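testing teh design pipeline on a random one, pls ignore if ur not involved
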C-alpha cells in the first residue's frame, strides 16, 4: 500500500494551508469554506426591507430607510434609496441573489467640498470581538467581499472603520481588476483582505464594532492625499477618509450605485456567500428593527391609552419607538377603531419592549382596548 506523508496541503498562491496535519497523532485541521455562521454581515443579500422598498431623502441625513442594516448618509440633494430586483441576466443572479440595494442621485447632490454620499453597514462589536479574528495581529485576516455596479464610469472608494479606542480606518478602491475605474453598468465582484493591526481596539459589547462604508462621492472636506490605501490609517478630523474623488457621479442626475452579496468573514480569502434562510435573516434583522406585536391595553382617559409593546426577538438595546400606522390601529371593542395621534416615551424600556402611552381619538375611559400589530416600530439600530 502506498502512502503520502505531508505536513500540510496548500493551494498555489494561497497564504495559508487548506489542510494541516498533526505529525504526532495523525489528526488534521481543515480550512473549510462551507462552514456555517461565518458571515458577520446581516442581510448581505439585501432581501429584507421591513421599513419600505423605496424612500427619497433630501438634505443632511443619516438614517436607515429601506433595506435592513443599510444606512444612507448624505449632506444635500435628494437620494432615492431602494430595494431592487436582479434580472436573470445579472451576474449575481446565478449565484442565488435576487435583490440589491440601490442609491439613485435623483437631483444631483453637487460637487461641493462639504458634499458626501455613502452607504454604511455596521457590524456589532461583540460579533467582531468573538469571531475568532485576532484583530491586533497582522497575520490574522478578515475578508470583505461584495458585488457592485454603478451607472457612471469612475473610481469609487470604500473603507472599514473600527470605532473603539483610537479610531482607525482601512480605505480601498472600488474598481475593476485593472485598478483604474469601475466600468459603468457592469456587475463587478470586489474582494478586500484586511490584516489585523496592533492599534485596533474592539470592545466585547453591543456598540459599533466595525463600519463598512461604500462611497459614491466625497467632497474635498473628507479627502486628501494622506490616507494610504489597503492599510490601516489613524482617522483624523474627517479630512482623510479617501483620496480625492472624481465628481462625475455626484453631478450626474439619476446616477446609480448598486450593492449586493455583502459578506465579511474571518479568512484570508473570500469564500462563497453564505446564504441563510429568509426566516433566519429576518430574525437577525429584528435585533435592530421590528414592528410591535398586538397587545391588549386600556384607556385611562377620554384620549389616553396605555399598552405594553413587544417584539418577537430580543433587541440590541432598549428601543426607540415611532408611529408607523396611525389610522384605526387601536381597537375599541364593540365600537369603531381609534387613531393614534402621538406617542409618549417607552416606560421601563428593555430589550424586550416596554410600556407606552399614546394619545388617541376620543374614546370611553377605563375600558379595555387593543393595540393592533404593526402600528408602532421599535428601533435599536447602531
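output:
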Amino acid at each position: 500500500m502506498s502512502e503520502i506523508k505531508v505536513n500540510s496541503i496548500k493551494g498555489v498562491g494561497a497564504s495559508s494551508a487548506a489542510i494541516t496535519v498533526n505529525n504526532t497523532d495523525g489528526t488534521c485541521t481543515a480550512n473549510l469554506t462551507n462552514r456555517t455562521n461565518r458571515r458577520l454581515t446581516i442581510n448581505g443579500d439585501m432581501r429584507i426591507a421591513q421599513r419600505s422598498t423605496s424612500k427619497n431623502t433630501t438634505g443632511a441625513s443619516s438614517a436607515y430607510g429601506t433595506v435592513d442594516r443599510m444606512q444612507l448618509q448624505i449632506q444635500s440633494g435628494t437620494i432615492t434609496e431602494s430595494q431592487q430586483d436582479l434580472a436573470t441576466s445579472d451576474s449575481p443572479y446565478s449565484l442565488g441573489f435576487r435583490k440589491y440595494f440601490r442609491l439613485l442621485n435623483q437631483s444631483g447632490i453637487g460637487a461641493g467640498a462639504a458634499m458626501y454620499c455613502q452607504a454604511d453597514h455596521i457590524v456589532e462589536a461583540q460579533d467582531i470581538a468573538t469571531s475568532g479574528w485576532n484583530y491586533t495581529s497582522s497575520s490574522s485576516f478578515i475578508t470583505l467581499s461584495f458585488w457592485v455596479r454603478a451607472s457612471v464610469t469612475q473610481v469609487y472608494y470604500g473603507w472599514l472603520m473600527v470605532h473603539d479606542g483610537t479610531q482607525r480606518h482601512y480605505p480601498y478602491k472600488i474598481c475593476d481588476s485593472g485598478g483604474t475605474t469601475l466600468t459603468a453598468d457592469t456587475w463587478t465582484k470586489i474582494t478586500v483582505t484586511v490584516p489585523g493591526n496592533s492599534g485596533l481596539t474592539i470592545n466585547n459589547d453591543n456598540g459599533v464594532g466595525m463600519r463598512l462604508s461604500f462611497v459614491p462621492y466625497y467632497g474635498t472636506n473628507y479627502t486628501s492625499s494622506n490616507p494610504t490605501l489597503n492599510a490601516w490609517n489613524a482617522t483624523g478630523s474627517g479630512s482623510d477618509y479617501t483620496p480625492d474623488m472624481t465628481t462625475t457621479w455626484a453631478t450626474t442626475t439619476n446616477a446609480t450605485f448598486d450593492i449586493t452579496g455583502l459578506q465579511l468573514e474571518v479568512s484570508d480569502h473570500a469564500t462563497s456567500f453564505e446564504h441563510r434562510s429568509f426566516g433566519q435573516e429576518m430574525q437577525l434583522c429584528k435585533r435592530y428593527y421590528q414592528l410591535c406585536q398586538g397587545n391588549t391595553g386600556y384607556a385611562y382617559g377620554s384620549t389616553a391609552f396605555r399598552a405594553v409593546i413587544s417584539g418577537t426577538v430580543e433587541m440590541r438595546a432598549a428601543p426607540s419607538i415611532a408611529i408607523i400606522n396611525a389610522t384605526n390601529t387601536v381597537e375599541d371593542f364593540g365600537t369603531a377603531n381609534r387613531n393614534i395621534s402621538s406617542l409618549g416615551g417607552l416606560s421601563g424600556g428593555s430589550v424586550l419592549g416596554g410600556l407606552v402611552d399614546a394619545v388617541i381619538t376620543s374614546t370611553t375611559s377605563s375600558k379595555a382596548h387593543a393595540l393592533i400589530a404593526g402600528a408602532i416600530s421599535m428601533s435599536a439600530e447602531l
